[in-house]
Structure formats: C-alpha cells, structure tokens
Amino acid sequence: MSSHREAPEISKDPSADNTDLYAFVSPDNPDTVTLIANFMPFELPYGGPNFNEFADDVLYEIKISNRGDARADIIYQFRFQTSIRNPNTFLYNIGPIASPTDPNWNRPQTYTLTRLVRRGGRYVPDGRVLGRGLTCPPVNVGVRSTPNYPALAAQSYHNLGGHRKVFAGQRADGFHVDLGSIFDLGDLRPFQDAYNTGIPPVLQGMPGVNGLTGLNVHTIALQVPISDLTVDGRKQTNVMSPKSVIGVWASASRSSARILDKHRGAYRSFGHYSQISRLGNPLVNEVLNPMAQKDRWNAQDPHDDKQFAKYVLHPELANLIANVLYPTAFPNLKAYVNANKPRNDLAAILLTGIPAGPIPGFQNFTGPVQADMLRLNVAVPPTAPGKENPIGLVAGDAAGFPNGRRPIDDVTAIELKAVAGATIGLVDHTFTADGAAGALNDGTTNDNVPYGQPFLPSFPYLSNPNSGFTSAPGEPGGELS
C-alpha cells in the first residue's frame, strides 16, 4: 500500500514495483506541475552491501493523457545505467562519498530522460532528449560513508532549463498506513472498542502503527511547466474547462524475454518491452481488484479498465466494513451494500473523474472512458503551505486528492471514508452517510521523518532517506545528534 507488493508476480520483482504516484501543482512554483513516481517497496536502509537501486533492464515511465481517451499523449521515459568502478572490492564504497561522481562510490548510476509524444497513433521523440548522463545520488549508507546526506543528494537535483527539474534516487517513504491492522481483515485499531460490537476488543483502541516507519523507496521526480502537459500547450486558468484536466499514471516494463548468461552470471534481455506494473490512483489494485486479477491488471493499459470496473462499483471492502467488522456502526452502508447498489461515487472518483455539478466550482472529468488514472485539474491553484487539509477534496481542499495527489494527502483515510459511504451522497441524494464514515481512518500519520521533517518545502518534496547506520528496525534514522 498504496501499491506496495500489491500483486503476486510484481511482489517478486521489487525494482519494477510501483509504490506511490503523486501529481500536483507545485506549491512554490505554481506555473509547474510536479510528478513523482516511487518504486521498490519496504527498502531497509541498512540493506547492504548490495543496496537497492534502479534496474538497468527496466523501462520506467510517467504517462500523461490530455485528450480524454485514457491513452498516453506524453510519455517521460527513464533508462538507467549502472557502472562498477572497482571490480576487486565487495564494498559499495571504499571511503566517504562527497559527490555523485566521487571515485569512492563503487556503483554509480546515471540515467537518460526522453520525452515522447503521440502523433497519429505512434509515439515519437519530441525532438530532443531532456537529459543524458544525469547522476543519481548513492543511497544513505551512514555517517561515515555519506556524511551530510541532504547536501550530497541535492547535487543530483538536476535543472533541465525552462523551469524543468528532475531527480532520481532514494527517499524516505512518505506514505503511511497501518499495514498490520488493514491486512488483518481490515480490523482498524482506533475502532476496535468503539464500533466492533461482537468482536473482542483485544487492542482497546490503541493508536495506529505506521508499517512504513524507518523504510525507504526509490523516487523519480519530475517538475515541468503546466504548458508541457496540456492538450493545447498552454497554462490553463479555467477550472471548468476540459483542457484543464490531465490523467497521470506510472509504469514499469521489462523485456518480453530474459536469458541467464552463465558466463556473466547475469540476465540478458531480448524482445520488446512488456508492462509488468502500473499505478494511477492509490490503493486500486491493492484493495479493490481480486487476487486473481491483480497481475493481469498490472499488464493492461488504463483505457482497457472497463473490464475491471465491477470491482469499483461493488467493492469487497465496503461489504467487509458494513457486514463483518462494524455492522452496528454502518447501518445505512449495510442497507446500500445488501441492496447491491452500484457505487457510482467511486466510479466517478477513480474511473472517470468528477464531472461538473456534484462539487460546486470543481471538476476533473476526463470523459466517459473508464480508466484508472490520477486526475489533476491544473487550473486549481495550490493551497498555501501549512494550510493544506490532508483529507483533500473531501474536506474542501480542492488542491488535494482525488484532484491529483500531494505527498501530504492522507489517501488511506480518504479512501476508507469514501468506501464507507462518505461520498455516496455526491451522486445519490437519497443516501445519508453513517456518522462513523467521517471518522473512519487507520490512525496513522507520517512519522517517517529521519531528518526531522516529513517533507521538503521544495523539489523533490519527499524527505531525504533514512540512514543505514543510524536506523533501527521500525525507527527512522537521520543525522546523529
């Protein structure tokens, strides 16, 4: 969660596993949009000597749809290349690393960033490679190997010109969720003794436990002008215009054939690229799609998602909340579920975007094609830093999820509330949400703060990663105090 190890096959291939996707109008540069795609779930900071890194044989992509057909109109491709400087040492580094080009770092990575556009049904380069030989920082090994890690990593915040920036490297995981309770049949700790009539309150309302505290991910972050992403190449200012809405998703692909080269002890790739992981809205493949469909969903493109719409319209989790876990707390949801009424509210939020009407002065509708994409209305200005509401659009903050997604948005709480019925009234005015729906959450906040702050105030926004030396299991590690 939000897409950590969400399907059986991709869970065996962490370097290609999408974990989170963010898309938001940059709060400190509102003429731009920031796109962030995270990969590699549950990274242990001290997982050496072969620390996590981007895979050379994986094609990482961030895709934009702006014509209303849920097909990629713009693709940003990231291809990585890893080197070994000293073949005669087992060490990741042979001394302190002062820069991404320091010879003490034995396994440097660089990457190429290419922008493709759709023309006549084909994807062609837009005339230039945005960056070549771009450096990644090393992972945060520890106080001797990577002293002053924030300054070291900042050397890989690349300015591409024209208000475009890019970063690829390790970050602290900014997502938070009580994995232990949610995967224990959704038995949320804060609601054990308040709403679970008939179920032993074994935890007595203990606070939620963030299962991602102290863990890292690998991040690809890109900041580009709004005009780079819109259908007419302009910065949009009319919230109600279809031209103001884009759909965003990230994917990872591998070659269709891999053969083990015994002489090198490594795989060689052949054939065309095949998609093995994707992510638009958080938690869709994680908790809505059934187990037997998860890997097939990962291999499909969003414009084919009509085949999976039934899992959104009749979510298993809603039945679990209403009929199994908290039947006395959700009588209205229980009646709705048992009447087999379709969840058109979730379909609007997750599959088409919200049309004009349900929320005055707002829409992020991309058309009737049902597709899992993170939809962002770029004409909605960013909320001032410090004024954001982590419950986003549901709480009246139109710059937050499901209008795109900011790192600060508590998407677990938002989607729990929505599945529990808090948003049904937007499309079905005969329904009254149960009082418990507004309170439903997993009881966690982002306590993964290795350097004392959950997020950075500027690009790439996600916090510097936990340090291997100063981390302890379940505790974030930053600088020594």
Describe the 3D structure.
This protein is α+β, with helices and mostly antiparallel strands. It has one domain (about 10-440). It contains 11 helices and 12 strands. It has helices spanning about 150-155, 180, 190-195, 285-290, 295-300, 310-315, 315-325, 330-340, 345-350, 410-420, 435-440; strands spanning about 20-25, 30-45, 60-65, 75-80, 110-120, 120-135, 160, 165-170, 215-225, 245-260, 265-280, 375. The strands form 2 sheets. Strands 3, 4, 5, 6, 10, 11 and 12 form a 7-stranded antiparallel β-sheet that branches. Strands 1-2-9-8-7 form a 5-stranded antiparallel β-sheet, with no helix packed on it. A hairpin with a 2-residue loop joins β5 and β6 (about 120-135). The radius of gyration is 22 Å and the shape is globular.
Briefly, what is this?
Helix content is 15%, strand content 25%.
Strand content: 15-25%
Helix percentage range: 10-25%
**Shape type:** globular
Question: Structural class of the secondary elements?
Answer: alpha+beta
The rounded Rg comes to: 22 Å
Distance between the termini: 32 Å
Features:
single chain; 481 residues; alpha+beta; seven-stranded antiparallel β-sheet; 12 strands; 25% strand; globular
